[in-house]
Each structure stands twice: as structure tokens, then as C-alpha cells.
Amino acid sequence: MLAERKKQHLDIVLSGHGSSTGVGTGFERVRFEHVALPEIDMSAIDLTTEFLGRKLSGPFLVSSMTGGAQQAQEINHNIAIACEAAGIAFAVGSQRVAIETNSDWGMNRELRRLAPSVPILANIGAAQLNTGYGIDQARRAIEMIDADALIIHLNPLQEAVQPEGDRNWRGLTEKIGLLSQSLHVPLVVKEVGSAVSPMVAQKLASLGVGIIDVAGAGGTSWAAVEAQRATTASEAAIASAFVDWGQPTAYAISAIRKSLPDIFIIGSGGVRNGVDAAKAIRMGANIVGQAASVLRSATSSPEAVADHFEVMSAQLRVACFCTGSSTLADLRIARLEATSYP
């Protein structure tokens, strides 16, 4: 049943029916001040950065994706091959089925063989920490794919509007803190489309979490996805009311960076191109994550994924050039203005 649900999620997102409808990412509300005399050589712009002790050729992460058993294997293999070639990081989707059954959905050490030099992130849901998961399952998820970090994903809205959702979230903050202190790799905490608020980020940071993936509103809405999955009118009505729930990605990035100047931020949630990525970095993200924007490529071939990020890198490079930024550090202080004209 869980595998079938994952397949339904993938099909809905691919169909385009899983997006927020009335809320933007916030990136559309700002623009860079154009520098007509950049005084730099565009070919010398340096987009490299570090993440989890490994060097990336660009500040990109292929965020967690879902799917049925065969789909997940194909997606993860395509992503692993592409990310190794492109020199960028990737995160697998939820490993719950792989942990609870004899089928690993292709989430095994083959991924590390295909991508030996880039960061790979394991992934389990926070809600599972109240259904029997603990340090043993977390370590299994990490060891299964030889991961550099473990993602704990927060999806309370999705669980609330999903008929079969896990809705007991008592005590999860403390359990996440214990994991952070017990694991031999860093813990990443991410939302799935409604944003991590500064208050929650501060609480997590106080417990030792050093990496936050904001995953703000403006991209995939899991309430919209669950509304599409609904089998009754009342289920659809409940989920549909929350399609635009959450804080826009740009706001979430800025708010957390202001609140926690030193925390590592992954900016994700509706990042559609390299200009959005540039804005995310300028507003406080260390690296930028994409899932839905690269999903069709990931279901196609490694080459399609690599082509997608070649375009993303080229767009980001142009944004750097036209702001006079030779490095990502320069981009972080480029002039940005609120859009008050068409």
C-alpha cells in the first residue's frame, strides 16, 4: 500500500497537479540590480563550494524524490550517475519501505559506487520516530547507501490531510535532538513544501542540528497532491483548503539566515531556474535544492538530469556575471531590490 501511495505521489507531481496555485516563492518579488560594467571575466567565475566535506562544482542538490519501487530505483540510479558527472549532491527519497521490507528499491551501496565523490543524503520521516524508529533505523538508512548525512523530513501538513497519515507528533523535537547527538554523520532537517520557521530552526539548532532545508511554499504542495489522491469529496475539500499553506521560500531563507547567521541553509521549494538559485543564495542559502523541477529528467535518463543542471549552472553564471560577482561569496553581497515596477 505504501509503495502504491508513493507511485501515486510521483504521477500527480509529474502531471503538474501538485503545485501551489495562489502563493509564489517570493523570488518574483525581488530582482538584482543590473551591473552594466561587471569588470570580470565570465569564464573565470567560480561556482564551486563545499558541502558535507566534499567539493561541489556548483551549489546544487537534487532533493529527495519519491515513486513506486521500480520508479525509485530508476530515479535514484539516474540521479547518482548524473550528480557524479556534474559534481553536485543528491538526496534519496524516504527509505521507509526499504527499511521495513526486504526490497531496497535500489537504495543500496550501488548508489555510492555510481557516485563515489559527491555527497549522498539518506532520508527518513520525522513521524516514523513515533512509530518505532530510532537510532538503529537511522543508522541502517545511512549505512544502506553509505550516506554522508541523514535527512529527517518534516511533513505535518501532508500527514494531517492524508487519510492514512501519521498524526501523533508529540515528543519529536526531543527525539530529533537525540538523533543529532548520536549519529556519526550530520543530521539535516527539512520541510517538504511549507517552510521551516525561524522559531523551529532555532529550536533545532539548540539541539545540535546544523543544516536546515527550508523547503518553502511556492513549489510542490503536498496538500494539493493529497487532494488529487482523495477518494471522497470531504477528503478533497479538507486538503484543498491548505494548498497555499506555509511561508514562501524566499521569506523562509531570509528569516532563518537573519535568525541564525551561522547555520547551513539549503534553499529549496519552487526553485525553477538559475536566476531563482542566485536569488536564494543572495538571500542566505548556502546551496540550492530542486526536486519537482528535475523530476521529469530524473525519470528519463542520467543525461537528461545532467543537461538540466548544465542549464542551471549556465543561468547562475550569467546572474553572477551581470551582478559583477566572481564567486558565490561575491553574489551573497550583490545588490538586490524589491520589485515595485512591472
Automatic annotation (TrEMBL):
UniProt: Mg(2+) binding residues: 159
GO cellular component, one term: cytoplasm
GO biological process, one term: isoprenoid biosynthetic process
Cofactor(s) listed: NADPH; Mg(2+); FMN
Annotated FMN-dependent dehydrogenase domain residues: 26-95, 174-333
Keywords attached to this entry: Cytoplasm, Flavoprotein, FMN, Isomerase, Isoprene biosynthesis, Magnesium, Metal-binding, NADP
Subcellular location: Cytoplasm
Binding, FMN: 63-66, 94, 123, 190, 220, 270-272, 291-292
Gene3D superfamilies noted in UniProt: Aldolase class I
Matching InterPro entries: Aldolase_TIM, FMN-dep_DH, IPdP_isomerase
EC number(s) recorded for this UniProt protein: 5.3.3.2
Catalytic activity: isopentenyl diphosphate = dimethylallyl diphosphate
Function as written in the Swiss-Prot or TrEMBL entry: Involved in the biosynthesis of isoprenoids. Catalyzes the 1,3-allylic rearrangement of the homoallylic substrate isopentenyl (IPP) to its allylic isomer, dimethylallyl diphosphate (DMAPP).
Subunit-structure text: Homooctamer. Dimer of tetramers.
Family under the similarity heading: Belongs to the IPP isomerase type 2 family.
Name of the protein in question: Isopentenyl-diphosphate delta-isomerase
